[in-house]
Amino acid sequence: MTETAPQLFRRNIAFRPASPDADRRTLIAFGAGLYIASTGSTAAFYRDYGPYGVRFPVWIARCADRDPGFAAIMTHENQDIGFVVLGADAKNPAIGCVHHLYVREDRRGYGFGGVLDDYARDALRAAGYDEAMLNVTPINARAIRFYEAQGWRPVSSQDAWRRRSSPAAFDGQTLFSGNEAGFSGDDARFSGDSDRFSGDRAPRKGGLLYYSVTL
User: Fold this and answer.
1) Which residue, 6, 9, 79, 110, shows the most beta carbons closer than 10 Å to its own?
2) Which residues contact 43 (CB under 8 A, 6 or more apart)?
3) Which residues are registered as beta bridge partners of 194?
């Protein structure tokens, strides 16, 4: 049986814990690329993480301190091609959160995003979560299509607020507009065929779209 392109590219994929020191340049480059995909520029990235994004690896280290698997770099044929950052929801620690999920632009469209999504769900499930949430910026149509294709469900802003209204706090982490998530426009298995989707979108709150999945 002939393998499809995604199957072929899944060969030689590996994950390793992200090192805020050794992977500093890679993480900052991925973070900047993620913000470009989600906002159209790097302005918000440098606003949130300082000149040259120097605070971004520091924030990732905080996520990794909770669980080494919560910050991972994906490699393909020994090249760093993407990363994922996970954690607990900032307002309700009982809910897992996909803060960031990103595939390098030149590697999108080959199924790598789906591999990252699988990794994220497995890691959060292993950490004891039975639900995960993420949010996406409305302008990131590619990421929206991707997550819907992966089975993430739109959540109304009211429901998102209710489910995230636990009195328990995370640790005051600061992100782009809350718990940033896979607004990276990362890859897809949908082949750009937007007609496969209903067009329904999660209602907006604070300029973000919320999505949830059962783990």
Assistant:
1) 110
2) none
3) none
Strand pairing class (131-136; 153-155): unpaired
Higher pLDDT, 3 or 137: 137
Give the pLDDT score at 88: 92
Return d(Cα 20, Cα 152) in angstroms, integer: 29
Q: Are 95 and 131 in contact (CB under 8 A)?
A: yes
pLDDT digits (tens, 9 = 90+) for 64-81: 998 999 999 999 999 999
Phi first, then psi: give them for residue 94, nearest 5 degrees: -75, -10
Please check the confidence at residue 202 and state whether its pLDDT lies above 50.
no
Cα separations in angstroms, 73 against 54, 100, 114 = 18, 11, 14
Alpha helices in the chain (DSSP H): 5-9, 24-39, 43-49, 56-66, 112-126, 141-149, 157-163
**In this predicted structure, what is the pLDDT of residue 203?**
41
0.70 exceeded by the pTM?
yes
